[in-house]
Amino acid sequence: MARLIDSGPGCPTPTPLRGASAAEARGLAYDDAVKAETDALYPLVQDFITPMEWPAIAPLVAAINRLKKEKNAVILAHNYMTPDIFQLVGDFRGDSLQLAREAANVDADIIVQAGVHFMAETSKILAPEKTVLIPDTRAGCSLAASITGADVRLIKE
Fold first, then answer.
1. How far apart are the first and last CA of the chain?
2. What is the domain extent for residue 129?
3. Which helix (H) or strand (E) is 155 found in, with range?
4. Dist. CA 152–CA 110, nearest whole Å
5. What DSSP character marks residue 117?
6. 4 vs 16, 63, 122, CA distance in Å?
7. DSSP code at position 147
8. How many domains, the chain?
9. Would you report the helix, strand and coil content of the chain in percent, each value rounded to 5?
10. Helix extents (H) in 9-148
11. How far apart are alpha carbons 25 and 36 in whole angstroms?
């Protein structure tokens, strides 16, 4: 089962801050270095993120991409993610089946599942030696939640 790893004292849970508030809360700024790192990425999301919003999002994108390299991590981005996650930081993109296939074959030490719980659990089953993280522990799937183990056993009878 996927679980929240560093949930003890001193490890803040992710905040729902977006844009400038999220970057500022983490001490990130849109400076010349971030601009140079991210300018080539903006065309991928220009239809979804306005030029006015970009300076608030770019520092987060740059920081995430740097952390992925530093920690030997990959992000599996589900189709339902926002364009900044899906296009700019996702290393592998697709539906739950495609992402499960990718999880089984990645070389990285850490898999960040930008999706729902069952997808993170599937990644851990297919790559038990990897650390699997889910950015939002509240991420759930209404379809998966609509049936229980007891329901499946009843159907099989």
1. 27
2. 72-157
3. helix 149-156
4. 32
5. H
6. 17, 21, 15
7. -
8. 2
9. 45, 10, 40
10. 19-25, 32-38, 54-71, 83, 96-105, 117-126, 142-145
11. 22
Assigned token pair, 24:
């500022």
At which residue do the structure tokens 């007891």 appear? 150
- Flag whether 107 is in a domain: yes
Calpha distance 123→133 (Å, rounded): 10
Residues 24 and 100 in one domain: no
What global pTM score does this model have?
A: 0.78
Distance separating alpha carbons of residues 112 and 129, to the nearest angstrom: 14
- pLDDT, one tens digit per residue, over 6-45 is 444 555 555 555 556 778 888 889 999 999 999 999 999 9
Contact between 114 and 81 (Cβ < 8 Å): yes
Note whether 113 and 132 are within 8 A (CB): yes
The verdict on 64 and 88 lying in the same domain is no
Task: Show Cβ contacts of residue 130 under 8 Å, excluding neighbours closer than 6 positions.
Answer: 103, 106, 108, 109, 110, 111, 123, 124
In a domain, 7, yes or no: no
Q: Rounded to an integer, what distance in angstroms lies between the CA atom of residue 98 and that of residue 116?
A: 14
Do 65 and 142 lie in one domain? The reply is: no
Angstrom distance (rounded) from CA 14 to CA 42: 25
pLDDT tens for residues 146-157? Answer: 678 888 898 888
